[in-house]
Design brief:
4 copies of one chain form a homotetramer. Chain A is an alpha+beta fold and about 375 residues long. Chain A contains 8 helices and 25 strands. In chain A, the strands form 5 sheets. Chain A has a 6-stranded antiparallel beta sheet with strand order 2-21-18-23-16-15. A 6-stranded antiparallel beta sheet of chain A has the order 3-4-11-6-9-14. The longest helix of chain A is centred in the first third of the chain and has 14 residues.
C-alpha cells in the first residue's frame, strides 16, 4: 500500500510519542480484544489444611478492633494481576472471631455474604437485625449496611466471607466508613427477616415493596439441606447436578445485585458434563471430596477447600465418592453479567460433554 | 338558560328515541359514576352448617362425570346482580369427591385455587403434576391448565374452590374445553413443583424463566402454619393482624394474575382497626370464631363459615376467643386492581380506627 | 347410573330451591363456559352522517354545565347487554364544545382518551396541563386526573371520547367527583409534557420515574402522520398493514393501563389477512373508505364512521381505494388482557388468510 | 493489648510471607476502602486543536484495513492507571474515514456509540442496517453486533467513538472477532429502525418484544436539536441545565446496558449548581465555549474539545457566552451503577451550590 510504504517507522514512533504527550494514543498500537475466547487466567485452589493453620496462627497474631478491623485471611488468586480477589470480581476469605470478641461495625459500598463453616453463637448485626450463624447458614450484608460481628459463645467462630470488592474497586466505587460505636445496636428481634420472608412462598401483606436487594438476610442450613434432598428426587442439571440459586423473595432474582449464591449437591458418583460461561465463581467445599476438571486440568478438592473458577473455562465436576454426597457452596458474578447483558454460556460438545484430562492441578501449579 | 327554555321535553324525548334507534344515547341521560364511594353491594355470609348439609345431600344427588362435571355447591352472593360469584370478580364454592370418584379433566381460561377443608388422599392433576391435598393446603390451577381430581382414599374429600369466573366473564373471555380422556395423565412426580420452588428462597439454577403464574402449585399447611406462628412473634398489621400473601416464587408477586390468596391469623382477643379498599374478598373461616364488622354491621362467624367482603366497605375483624387463634383464608382481586392501577386503600380515622356497631348481620339480612 | 336413577327430578328441584334460599346454587345447573370460542356478540357500526346530525341537534338541545355535564353522544352497541359501551370494556362517543363553552372539570377513576375530529382552539386541561386539540391529535386523561375542556376558538370543536367505563363498572370501581370550580387551573405551560417526552427517544435527565401511565399527554397528528409514512416504506403487518401502537415513553408499553390506542394506515388497495384475538376494539375511520370483514360479514365504512369489533371475531380490513390511504384510529382492551395473562391470538389459516364473504352488515343488521 | 505486645514484627512478616506463598494475604495488611469519598483521579481535557492535527496526521500514516483495523486516535486519561479509557469505564476516541475507505466489519462484546462531528455520506452498517451519519447524529452499535464503516462521499468523515472497553475489560469479558468479509451486507433498508421506533412515542403493533438494548439505532440531530429548544422553554435542571438522556423506546431506559448518552444545552450565561455522583462521564463540546469547575479547578473548553469527569467529583458548568448556547454531548456509566444498585448523588450545599474556584486546569496540569 502506498501509505505503508511512505510511512517510515521513525515517523510513526514520533507520532506515538507526541500523542502520548497529550494524553492520547493510536488504537492500532493497542492489542485487540481476546480472539480466542479462552479463560483469561488459570484457576486456583486453597487447601483447608493451609487455611486452617493460618487462621489459627492469626488468632495468636491479631484480634479484631483497632489493630485489625477484621481477623481475615484473604484467598487471593495470584494469577489475577493487581487483584486481591479469588477472581477478578469476587473475594474469598476466612474470618475468625474468638469468644467474647467483637469485629466492630462499619459499612462499605461493597456487598458481602457470610457462609458459616465452624462454630455457633455468633451474631452478625445487619442494619439492626441480629443474624444467627450456624454451619451452612448463609447471611447477607448488602452494600452500605452497618454490620459487625460478636461471638457470644465459648468457642471460636469461623466463616467464609465473599465480597464484590474487586468489581466495586474496578468501578472506583469502594467507599467505607466506621460506625461511631463498637457495634451498631439491635433494633429488630433475632430472626426478623426470616419470620417475614423465610418460610416458603409467602410474604406479609404489609410493607413489602420490591427491592433489588433481598430483604431476607439469613438462609438457614436446615432448610437448604432439606431442599437439596427434595430436588435430588426430582431433577438435576447435567452441568451442575442438584443445584439451587438463593433468591430474593421479593423478585425471584439474585439475593444481591452483584453477588450470586449457589448451593449444589453432587450425588454419589456423579460426573457432570462440561460447559463454560462468561462468569467466574468461588467454590467452597462444604462436604465431600471430588474433582473439578477445568480446561482439561484436574483439580482435586476435599472438605474445607476453596477454589476459584475463571470465566470462560470449560469445567465439569466429579464426586469421587460413590457413597456420600459432595456439597459445594459458591458465589458468582452472574447478576452483574445478566444486568449488563454480557452473559453467555456454551455446552462442551465433544465426548458426551466430557473433557480429556490432560494434567493435574498439582503438575500445573508446581 | 336560553337553551333550556327553548327545549321542550317532547323534543328531548324524540331525540332520545331517535338516538336509540341508531344504537346511540345521550350521556346526560345516564347516571354519573358513584359519588359516595361506598360499597356497591352488601356483604354475605354462608353458614358451614348449611353448606355441609347441602354438600352431603349433593353426594346423594349427583356424582362427577357426564352427569355433573363437578359436584360443586356454589356460594353466590344474591346482592350481586346477574352474578354467580361471591363477589363481582370471584366465585366461592365447595366441592366434594367421594372415594373412587374422578372429577374429569377439563381446562378453562378462568383460573382456580383449591383450599382443602376435609379429607386426604385426593390428587388434583395440574398439567401433569399430581398435587396432593390435605386440610389447609392451597393448590393452584392456573388458567388453561388441564386439571381433574381423583379421590384414591376411603373417605370423602371436601375443599373450597375459588375462581375468577365473574371477572373473566365480564371480560367475555370464558372459554372451556373437556379433556379427551377421563383424567389427564401424570407426566411429573408428586411434589415436582414443591421440590423445585417450595423450600424457601431458592430456585433451581436451570429452567426458571420468569412468569406471571406461579410455577409452585402447592403450598402445604405445615409450612403455612409454621410461618404464621413465626411472623406472630415479630410483627402484625393493624388491619389484618398476622397475615401473609401467598407469592409466586419467580416474581415475589401474586400467585396468579387474577386471584390473590391470603392466610391470616387473628391472635386471641385481637380486634383490628377498620380500613377499606377498592378490592373485594371471599373469606373462609379455617379455625376459630369471631366477627367482622362491615360498614357498621356485625357479621359473626365460626369454623367452616364463608363470607364475602364487598369493595370499599369499612371492615375490621375480631377474634372472640381470648384463648385460641382464629385463622382466615381468603381470595381477593388485588392482582387485578394493582395491574390496572385502580387500587387504593384508606384507614378508618375515627374512634381509634374502630367503627360503631350499628346492627347485626342477622337483623339486616332478616 | 345408580344415582341418576334414584334421583327424581322433584327432589333435585327441591334441592335447587333450598340452595337458592341460602344464597347458593349447584354448579351442574349452570351453563359451562363457551366451548365454541366464537365472538360473544356481533359487531356494530355507527354512520358519521347519523352521528353528525345528532351532534348538531345536541348543540341545540343542551350545553355543557349544570344541565349536561358533557354534551356527548354515546355510541352504545345494543348487542352488549346492559352496556353503554361500544364493546364490553370500552365506550365510544362524540363530544362537541361550542365557542366560549366550558365542559366543567371533574375526575373519575375511569380513564379516557380524546381523538380529535373537527375544529381547533380548544384546550383540555389535564391535571394542570393545558393540552391543545387539533384534528388527528390524541390526548390522554388518565384515571383520577382533574380535567375539563374550554373552547376558545370561534368554531365548534368535535372529538371522539373513548373510556374504560364498562370495564371499571364491571370492577365496581367507578368513582367520580366534580371539581369545586368550573375549570381546574393551568399550573403548567401549554405543551409541557410534549416538551419533556414528545420528541423521539429522549427524556429529561431529571424527574422521570417510571409509571404505568404515560407522562406524555398529547400525541400530535403531524408526528403521527409522518411516522405512518416512514413505516409504510419499511414494513407492514399482514393483519393490520401499517400500524402503530401509541406508547408510554417511560416504559415502552401502552399509554394507559386499561386502554390501548392504535393508528393504522391501510395502503391503497390493501386487503389484510384475517386473524382473531381475545381483545375488542372500537375503530374510527379518520380518512378513506373500505370494509372490514368480521366473521364473514362485510361491514363497509367511510370517513367519520365508527365500528366496534367484538372479541374473538375473525376480521380483515380492505382499503377500497386504489389511490388513497385509509386511516383507522382505534382503542382496545389489549393492556387489560396482557396484564391479566388472558391474551391470545390466532391467524386465519384458510384461503391464504382470507374469509369467505357470506353476507353484508346491512343484510345482517336489517 | 496483650496480643500486640506479644507479636513482634518479625513473626508478622513471616506470617505474611508464608501466606503469600499459598496465594493468601491478611486483610489487615490491606488498605481499607476510600474513607474520603472524593474523586479517585483528576479530570482530563483534550483540545480539539491537538486532536484535529493528530487526526490529520493519522490520515497520512495509516488507513483502515489490515494495517490498522480502525484509524482511531484514542483519548486516554493518563491519571487512570493501566487504562486506555477516558475514565475507568469508558473510552473516548476520534475516528476518521476518508472518501472511498472502508473500516472493515468486526464485532466485539464491548458496546459502542458514534457521535458524528464532521462530514456526511458515511454509512455505519449495524447488523444489516445501514445507518447514515451526519453531524450531531448519534449511532449505536450494541455489543456483539457486526459493524463496519464505509465513506461513500467525497470528503473526510470524523466522529467520536465511545465504548465500554475498560468496563468490559475489568469484567474479563472482552471478546472480538473479524467479519469474514470486508463489510457485512445490508439486509435492511436505510432508516429501518428509525422508521419503526424513531418518530415519537409509538411502536409498530407487531414484533416489538422488550429488550435491554435499544432497537432504535440512530438518533438524528434535527430531532435532538428541536427537542432541546422545546425543553428549554419549559424546564431545566439546576445541575445540568437543559439536558436529555437518549432512551431505549422499548423500555424508557438507557440506550445500552453499559453506556448512557446525554445531550445538554447550557443556555447563554447559565452557570449551573454543583453536585457529584458515583458515575463518570466523557464530554464532547459540540458547540460553544465555557468552563466546567471540577473540585474547585476551572477547566475551560471550546468547540471540539473533550473532557473526562471522574466519579465523585463536585462539578458545575458555565456557558461563557451570553449570546449563544453551548451544547455538550456526553457518555456515562450511569446504567451500570443503576443496575448494580451503586448509584448515589449529592448536591453541593454551600454558597448556593457554587464552588470556590481555587485554580485553573492549566495550572494544575502544569
Amino acid at each position: 500500500m502506498a501509505i505503508e510504504q511512505a510511512v517510515d517507522s521513525e515517523r510513526m514512533e514520533s507520532f506515538f510519542r507526541r500523542l502520548e504527550a497529550k494524553g492520547m494514543d493510536a488504537l492500532w498500537r493497542q492489542r485487540p480484544g481476546d480472539r480466542t475466547g479462552g479463560a483469561p487466567f488459570p484457576p486456583f485452589r486453597w487447601r483447608w489444611s493451609d487455611i486452617e493453620s493460618f487462621v489459627q496462627e492469626a488468632t495468636e497474631l491479631v484480634r479484631p478492633g483497632p489493630q485489625a478491623e477484621r481477623r481475615v485471611v484473604l484467598l487471593g488468586n495470584p494469577h489475577v494481576p493487581g487483584n486481591l480477589g479469588a477472581t477478578h470480581t469476587l473475594t474469598a476469605a476466612v474470618q475468625t472471631v474468638l469468644p467474647g470478641e467483637i469485629a466492630p461495625s462499619h459499612r462499605h459500598t461493597a456487598a458481602a455474604i457470610r457462609w458459616v463453616l465452624r462454630g455457633k453463637g455468633t451474631i452478625t448485626m445487619v442494619d439492626g437485625e441480629p443474624c444467627e450463624m450456624n454451619p451452612g447458614d448463609l447471611v447477607l450484608t448488602p452494600g452500605w449496611c452497618w454490620h459487625g460481628h460478636i461471638n457470644q459463645s465459648d468457642g471460636p467462630m469461623v466463616w467464609m466471607d465473599s465480597l464484590d470488592v474487586p468489581l466495586v474497586g474496578a468501578l472506583q466505587a469502594m467507599l467505607q466508613e466506621p460506625y461511631p460505636d463498637e457495634l451498631n445496636p439491635a433494633t429488630k428481634p433475632v430472626g426478623d427477616s426470616y419470620a417475614r420472608y423465610g418460610s416458603g412462598s409467602m410474604r406479609p401483606v404489609w410493607g413489602s415493596t420490591s427491592s433489588p436487594i433481598s430483604p431476607l438476610l439469613t438462609f438457614p442450613w436446615s432448610q437448604t439441606e432439606r431442599a437439596l434432598h427434595q430436588l435430588a428426587k426430582i431433577d438435576a442439571s447435567p452441568f451442575d447436578d442438584v443445584a439451587f440459586q438463593f433468591t430474593n423473595p421479593l423478585t425471584g432474582g439474585h439475593v444481591l445485585p452483584t453477588i450470586g449464591c449457589w448451593i449444589q449437591m453432587l450425588r454419589p458418583g456423579v460426573r457432570t458434563q462440561a460447559h463454560r460461561h462468561m462468569t467466574s465463581a468461588v467454590y467452597q467445599v462444604f462436604r465431600g471430596r471430588g474433582s473439578t476438571i477445568i480446561d482439561g486440568v484436574q483439580l482435586d478438592w476435599e472438605e474445607g477447600d476453596f477454589f476459584a473458577l475463571p470465566p470462560r473455562a470449560w469445567h465439569e465436576h466429579v464426586n469421587r465418592s460413590t457413597e456420600h454426597e459432595a456439597l459445594l457452596f459458591s458465589t458468582n458474578d452472574l447478576p452483574v453479567f445478566e444486568a449488563l447483558n454480557l452473559y453467555r454460556e456454551e455446552p462442551y460438545a465433544d465426548r458426551n460433554g466430557h473433557q480429556d484430562v490432560i494434567g493435574s492441578y498439582e503438575e500445573r501449579a508446581g
